[in-house]
Amino acid sequence: MRTFSFGAGVQSTAVLVLQAQGRLPEPYDAFLFANVGDDSEDPDTLRYYREFHVPYAEKHGIPLHELHRIKRDGTEETLMERLTKKDSRSFDIPIYMVNGAPGNRNCTGDFKIKVIRKWQRQHGSSKENPAVCGLGISLDEIHRARTDSGFPDQILDYPLLDHTPPLRRKDCYKIIEEAGLPKPPRSACFFCPFHNLEHWRRLKRERPDLFAQAAELETTLNIRRAKLAAEGVRSAVLAPQVYLTKYRGPLEQVIADQLVLDLDG
Question: Which of 28, 213, 37, 220 is nearest to 111 (CA)?
């Protein structure tokens, strides 16, 4: 079984187009989009996925499946629900500590990797018959490529790197444009701590409702952190404050300062 982990961003879109055009080294049986939640994914990503990816895949006969994290009781769980769950002790996104270091990244493992692997197992993958999992990593980010998935029933595959010649991000844009598709947005949660300052500035200017939700999430996580510190949890005592940027200040304050700098310039 050959599957592709479809992130709905630039590289993934290029791989979808290459499959439609018969230009992949080896085609995939299914493209799998692990949606971490309509309340968590960037709305622009979901809009593009539903308005362009889905119709394009259908037109070219490519199986494209939208997956969700399903708990043991059969209910769906979104990343935002987990992060804001009452009495939760979890911090499953790479929030920044007071020393500038990011925290864990369980969000990718629990809401992307495990969800896709569960689908693969349900469709026949095993240690004896491992599934191939394609990843949209281009040549300019080859440092992200791994040789081992960490699972005995899954083998990683890199179609953009295996392409002749290997493809860079700029090549992906060209492939998408020549296919008649609009430029896709970057794929990520709107509150992801890995966003750069320009993303946060633009979010505050153009989509203030999402910026406010991100700031509220940061406040919620800090309230939880303070509670854990009061209970004597060592990690919280050592780092009582956490942030969505590496600038060690509340999101509202950091981006307000940045906007002022832009105006002064």
Answer: 37
